[in-house]
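Translate sequence into structure tokens.
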Amino acid sequence: MRVIAGRFKGMALATPKTGTRPTTDRTKEAVFSRLESWGVLDDARVLDLFAGTGALGIEALSRGARELVAVESSKPAAALIVKTLAQLKRNRSWSSDISACVLIRKAEAFAASGAAAHPFDLIFIDPPYAFETAACDSLLADLASGGLTGEGTVIVLERSARSDDPTPPAGWEITDHHDYGETAVFAIEPVVNGDRDDEDREDHEGPAL
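Result follows.
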């Protein structure tokens, strides 16, 4: 696996032999085309839950984000993300205003803690396909009720296309949904003034690959 585009394009990502389900390049390119068209990546603070290989968070850094917190419960997987970030920091495109760290914690525990100095602009959630819908809804509720999110936060959730759709927390809504083979991708955002104009998302979609 490699970084698809941006300042770290072509950088190899260390991948565990087992235990993770990396997002395919096809899905990743479609997701990031949309995020770039929505203008949410530039200087963004990014939280990557169930980080796995760290591919989503690192792709965000490559495309303009300035801060990444990757949360991964598997110590071997987390160690590989640390290794990848160490390589990135030696890259000539790394600058002093970029920061990235890895936390070895369960995503659910981190979300429930609500501990953040400032809300994140973009949150990736890519749990195992076996992660139950009720647990997913609870995780979203914890994110929405704590200090990890703000009025402008975009949550990108990946699930099995065969799973039930998530239920957004009160005051939040699904603003975008696309299926890519076996993977369903949802964008979940706070309702703006009680009435979000969904045409904003429809008019600025990236390519449906």
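Note: Residues 119 and 148 are 5 Å apart (CA to CA).
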